[in-house]
Automatic annotation (TrEMBL):
Gene3D superfamilies: P-loop containing nucleotide triphosphate hydrolases. Residues 29-56 form a coiled coil. This is Polyphosphate kinase. It comes from Deinococcus aetherius. It holds the Pfam family PPK2. SUPFAM superfamilies: P-loop containing nucleoside triphosphate hydrolases. Keywords: Coiled coil, Kinase, Transferase. Residues 1-23 are annotated as: Disordered. One of its GO terms (molecular function) is kinase activity. InterPro entries: P-loop_NTPase, Polyphosphate_phosphotransfera, PPK2-rel_1, PPK2-related. Residues 28-252 form the Polyphosphate kinase-2-related domain. The keyword Kinase applies.
Length: 266
């Protein structure tokens, strides 16, 4: 699969219409489900090397509209990792204390330390997207925040953290079906928030805000637009991108200061 097809190129205007939400990459569901266990095994082995090396870190950013599949991605992709080497943060409405600091204060505190995989299930981009759509910040403020984000991500990169940013791209029809499924299943009622319908009514405004946000794609911290109407393809594509990135990072376990062949266990 050509992973670069889904990567937002730095410095270029981005239109989400370039990517079909129901793209399947030429796979079918059965083939994808056959491949996924092998990909999960590769993820686990590469993460173990990253943890053992403890000289690099990987930060995975997940952004999506409501019902876009962030939790499903955590379950089916990030779930392949050893929990001891993963830190998952979910940034919602800032608390009183958080609002008393700059908007990146709470974010920096959860950046992964070396050897770890960090996952932002909603991220620092929430502080641009939601306020911009709801008119709480103006265009100048939102652009300034994006500049701060670029600098913040560059800082993390300089400190040894690779960053992957995934926008889970679903259609309004698929979102409607997923929200309806939550209403029809009593065990999923807790996942339904009536406020999601107010956000859904602002679909075009969020599209424009996301397209602006995707402009922060850089070589060191790229955005990928992930077609997410098909959950199985979402999992397949994200898994492959993470694997290729970890291979590029090439973490190496530390050398031991003894000869393993000389050890005798009685």
């Amino acid at each position: 699969m050509n992973l670069d097809m889904y990567r937002v190129q730095p410095g270029q205007p981005t239109s989400l219409s370039r990517w079909a939400t129901d793209d399947d990459g030429g796979y079918d569901k059965k083939a994808a489900r056959t491949l996924l266990p092998e990909l999960q095994d590769q993820l686990a082995r590469l993460q173990e090397r990253l943890y053992a090396e403890s000289k690099q870190a990987l930060l995975i950013v997940l952004q999506a509209r409501d019902a876009g599949g962030k939790d499903g991605t955590v379950k089916h992709v990030i779930g392949a990792f050893n929990p001891n080497g993963v830190d998952i943060a979910n940034f919602k409405v800032p608390s009183t204390e958080e609002r008393a600091h700059d908007f990146l204060w709470r974010i920096h505190a959860r950046a992964p330390h070396l050897g770890m995989v960090g996952v932002f299930n909603r991220s620092h981009y929430e502080d641009v997207l939601v306020p911009r759509v709801h008119g709480q910040i103006d265009e100048q403020t939102s652009e300034r925040r994006l500049q701060h984000i670029r600098a913040f991500e560059a800082l993390l990169g300089d400190a040894g953290t690779r960053i992957l940013k995934f926008y889970l791209h679903i259609s309004p029809e698929e979102q409607k079906a997923r929200l309806q499924a939550r209403l029809e299943d009593p065990e999923k009622h807790w996942k339904f928030n009536p406020g999601d319908l107010e956000e859904r009514a602002l679909w075009d405004d969020y599209t424009a805000a996301y397209e602006l946000t995707l402009s922060t794609s850089t070589e060191a911290a790229p955005w990928y637009v992930i077609p997410a109407d098909r959950k199985w393809f979402r999992n397949l594509l994200i898994s492959q991108i993470i694997i290729e990135t970890l291979k590029q990072m090439n973490p190496q376990p530390p050398r031991v200061d003894f000869d393993p062949l000389s050890v005798r266990i009685e």
